[in-house]
């Protein structure tokens, strides 16, 4: 079901024509032929338009069809309309299933409504509103698809009908009644087929009746699509099908594979009976585009056998691959950890997700028919890389290999003595990762960093000094030979009013939190680039998303870190290096701090006595101090559970830019964003010109007179058009 490559002996125009679904193909053909006949003066438009008198009084019933086929003489306008007609008709027909029954019924519904409404708006030709109906339905079903109009305006699909209306209004200077009527009819169809059924137990009042389906389907398919595909995967040997055997046979080794075992090799399987479930998954994984492909002798003709053989060549993709089976059956073969083939049988309503870099191949079964929906994050593309010795070094192939028990992740954790760092180190060691646990110079002794295991290297570092950071990275590479994940949990803050904090305290916070993060990145990024992979887990804070009274300079350092990482993430994405900002809220410590300090502390914060101006118990500057003293160790979020989530983040294929930890953090950041939005709305009027005065002036009266004359001209033109 991968995209067909090659022309199968046909020229591109012929291949484009025969790839169109049957209804779209013949409608497009009839439209072009009708305009050609008019151009050659073999017929006239007066023989094609629809009116009640000519059809029902004179018996010229062909006009019920020709009114939808004539878009005007050969011109750029005709080319524009034919393009929109075939494009969106094709997309809708391909998404409606193997049988043309549903799409043809949509055409019948739209044509019937347009014929009923056309006398009300004096519209003799109805091809434009019919194509507008299809465009509207497609746009509502693809809300996340991004479009570009004339290369000038970028918008999402739901705005397409309105953009076309505006363009028509500018070009013709009249209200586009045909497009408005098409939108109204399209919305009725969309409501009763996409919105109404979930609210009324799946009832679909506009679905085609059974007698109409029989006209196109001829016979009913089996009931297997209504049952869960329980035996969908079997394990085979290194060669599942011999070169001279039939690849379409089951080749069942008798050893079943379940969904959990498929997950271990990165393959995800879902059973999704309704298209709404596919839409939800596409939105969750940020897939914006889709199309449908049919692999069968009837669809591909003589090229079918060669295409299926080509699909069966072992290959990989540098993009994740999602296929949703709409009809028929087929097999996906994927390579396991031991380089054995695993055959996955897919049938109607099955969905499979293959990770980038996994070796696989596809074939139909003995029925030689499958119809599948393909999902894409951006523009549709399909680039197979056939297996070779050189391809084993591909960066996506390397990334696809899951961590094996004898090949654990190598992690470097700065700030390993803090309550978050300690929990993260323990979590990684419990899962057999190799960890460099970095404590803080002058606060931790080398002996205290020893954990009595070969999987952990204890070191000391002052992140404020670039050379100290570089030494830790060098020693880690000498010990473990590789670094996969770098987590920076180091941090320092002072709780006190902005006015009360001296220059030394403020500089110390910036040197530790911001410059320390920058030193870690600049010392390690060249290595990550050289190995074409790497992961940064940078601990920010809720204070990096909102200002907290009593933590002014600390918030400033975290805001700086947030800006640094967000900007850098765009710069390093092409190197397959990912960075995530971890934003914890109020987190419980897993164990009390053992470091003594002459001043009271909480975590990595020093609590500074307030000056007289800020010493009142209700002073906003004491907010942060009141919070930590009131909560103590009763914070709602556990550091141990946070560490487990962060460890999983280091193994996530598509990590987020920000990971917010804890309900307090989520609610606080959400309230801050809501406040910013409300403030923008309250003050946005200052950035727009004031409304003009409404007093009547001679110029205004002249414009009103001109507008009245335009209306009279429009009425006269409408009456002449109806005549």
Automatic annotation (TrEMBL):
Residues 685-723 are annotated as: Disordered. It is an enzyme of class 1 (oxidoreductase). HAMAP family: Salvage_MtnD_euk. One of its GO terms (cellular component) is cytoplasm. It comes from Xylaria multiplex. Binds either 1 Fe or Ni cation per monomer. Iron-binding promotes an acireductone dioxygenase reaction producing 2-keto-4-methylthiobutyrate, while nickel-binding promotes an acireductone dioxygenase reaction producing 3-(methylsulfanyl)propanoate. It is found in: Cytoplasm; Nucleus; Membrane. Residues 707-716 have a biased composition (Acidic residues). Ni(2+) binds at residues 315, 317, 321, 360. Fe(2+) binds at residues 315, 317, 321, 360. GO terms for biological process: L-methionine salvage from methylthioadenosine. The keyword Ribosomal protein does not apply. Its main location: cytoplasm. Its cofactor is Fe(2+); Ni(2+). Catalyzes 2 different reactions between oxygen and the acireductone 1,2-dihydroxy-3-keto-5-methylthiopentene (DHK-MTPene) depending upon the metal bound in the active site. Fe-containing acireductone dioxygenase (Fe-ARD) produces formate and 2-keto-4-methylthiobutyrate (KMTB), the alpha-ketoacid precursor of methionine in the methionine recycle pathway. Ni-containing acireductone dioxygenase (Ni-ARD) produces methylthiopropionate, carbon monoxide and formate, and does not lie on the methionine recycle pathway. Pathway: Amino-acid biosynthesis; L-methionine biosynthesis via salvage pathway; L-methionine from S-methyl-5-thio-alpha-D-ribose 1-phosphate: step 5/6. Its EC number is 1.13.11.54, 1.13.11.53. SUPFAM superfamilies: NAD(P)-binding Rossmann-fold domains, Rhomboid-like, RmlC-like cupins. The keyword Transmembrane helix applies. This is Acireductone dioxygenase. Residues 689-701 have a biased composition (Low complexity). The gene is ADI1. It catalyses: 1,2-dihydroxy-5-(methylsulfanyl)pent-1-en-3-one + O2 = 4-methylsulfanyl-2-oxobutanoate + formate + 2 H(+); 1,2-dihydroxy-5-(methylsulfanyl)pent-1-en-3-one + O2 = 3-(methylsulfanyl)propanoate + CO + formate + 2 H(+).
């Amino acid at each position: 079901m991968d995209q067909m490559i090659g022309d199968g002996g046909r020229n591109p125009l012929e291949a484009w024509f025969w790839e169109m679904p049957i209804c779209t193909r013949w409608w497009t053909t009839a439209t072009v032929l009708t305009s050609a006949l008019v151009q050659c003066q073999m017929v006239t438009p007066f023989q094609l338009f629809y009116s009640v008198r000519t059809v029902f009084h004179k018996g010229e019933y062909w006009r019920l069809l020709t009114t939808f086929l004539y878009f005007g003489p050969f011109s750029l306008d005709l080319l524009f309309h034919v393009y929109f007609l075939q494009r969106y008709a094709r997309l809708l027909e391909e998404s409606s299933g193997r049988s043309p029954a549903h799409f043809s019924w949509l055409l019948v519904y739209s044509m019937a409504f347009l014929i009923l409404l056309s006398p009300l708006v004096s519209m003799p030709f109805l091809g434009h509103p019919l194509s507008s109906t299809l465009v509207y339905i497609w746009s509502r079903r693809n809300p996340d698809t991004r479009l570009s109009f004339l290369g000038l305006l970028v918008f999402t699909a739901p705005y397409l009908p309105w953009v076309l209306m505006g363009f028509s209004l500018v070009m013709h200077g009249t209200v586009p009644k045909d497009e408005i009527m098409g939108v109204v009819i399209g919305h009725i169809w969309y409501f009763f087929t996409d919105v109404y059924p979930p609210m009324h137990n799946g009832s679909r009042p506009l679905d085609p009746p059974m007698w109409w389906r029989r006209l196109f389907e001829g016979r009913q398919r089996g009931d297997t699509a209504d049952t869960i595909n329980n035996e969908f995967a079997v394990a085979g040997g290194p060669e599942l099908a011999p070169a001279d055997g039939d690849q379409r046979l089951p080749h069942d080794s008798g050893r079943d594979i379940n969904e959990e075992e498929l997950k271990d090799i990165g393959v995800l399987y879902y059973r999704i009976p309704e298209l709404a479930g596919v839409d939800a998954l596409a939105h969750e994984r940020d897939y914006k585009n889709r199309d449908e492909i049919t692999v069968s002798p009837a669809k591909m003709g003589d090229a079918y056998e060669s295409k299926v053989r080509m699909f069966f060549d072992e290959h990989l993709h540098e993009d994740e691959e999602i296929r949703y089976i709409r009809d028929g059956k087929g097999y996906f073969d994927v390579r396991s950890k031991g380089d054995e083939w695993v055959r996955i049988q897919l049938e109607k309503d099955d969905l499979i997700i293959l990770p980038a870099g996994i070796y696989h191949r596809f074939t139909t079964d003995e029925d030689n028919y499958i119809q599948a929906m393909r999902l894409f994050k951006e523009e549709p593309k399909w680039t197979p890389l056939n297996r070779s010795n050189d391809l084993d070094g591909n960066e996506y192939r390397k990334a696809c290999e899951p961590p094996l028990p004898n090949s654990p992740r190598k992690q470097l954790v700065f700030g390993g003595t803090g309550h978050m760092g300690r929990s993260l180190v323990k979590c990684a060691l419990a899962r057999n990762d190799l960890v460099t646990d970095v404590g803080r110079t002058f606060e931790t002794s080398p002996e205290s960093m020893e954990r009595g295991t070969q999987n952990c290297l204890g070191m000391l570092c002052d992140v404020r000094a670039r050379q100290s950071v570089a030494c830790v990275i060098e020693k880690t590479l000498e010990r473990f030979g590789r670094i996969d994940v770098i987590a920076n949990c180091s941090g320092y803050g002072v709780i006190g009013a902005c006015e009360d904090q001296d220059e030394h305290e403020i500089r110390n916070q910036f040197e530790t939190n911001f410059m320390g993060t920058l030193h870690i990145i600049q010392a390690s990024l060249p290595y990550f680039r050289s190995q074409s992979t790497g992961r940064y887990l940078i601990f920010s804070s809720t204070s990096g998303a909102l200002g907290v009274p009593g933590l002014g300079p600390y918030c400033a350092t975290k805001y700086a870190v947030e800006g640094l990482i967000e900007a850098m993430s765009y710069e390093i994405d092409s190197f397959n290096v990912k960075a995530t900002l971890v934003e914890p809220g109020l987190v419980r410590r897993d164990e009390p701090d053992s470091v003594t300090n002459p001043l009271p502390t909480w975590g990595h914060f020093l609590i500074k006595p307030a000056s007289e101006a800020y010493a009142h118990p209700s002073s906003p500057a004491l907010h942060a101090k009141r919070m930590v003293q009131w909560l103590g160790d009763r914070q709602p979020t556990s550091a141990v559970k946070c560490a487990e989530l962060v460890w999983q983040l280091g193994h996530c294929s598509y990590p987020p830019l920000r990971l917010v930890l804890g309900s307090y953090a989520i609610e606080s950041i959400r309230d801050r964003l809501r406040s910013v939005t409300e403030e923008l709305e309250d003050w946005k009027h200052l950035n727009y010109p004031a409304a003009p005065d409404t007093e009547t002036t001679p110029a205004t009266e002249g414009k009103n007179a001109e507008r009245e004359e335009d209306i009279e001209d429009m009425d006269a033109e409408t009456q002449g058009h109806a005549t």
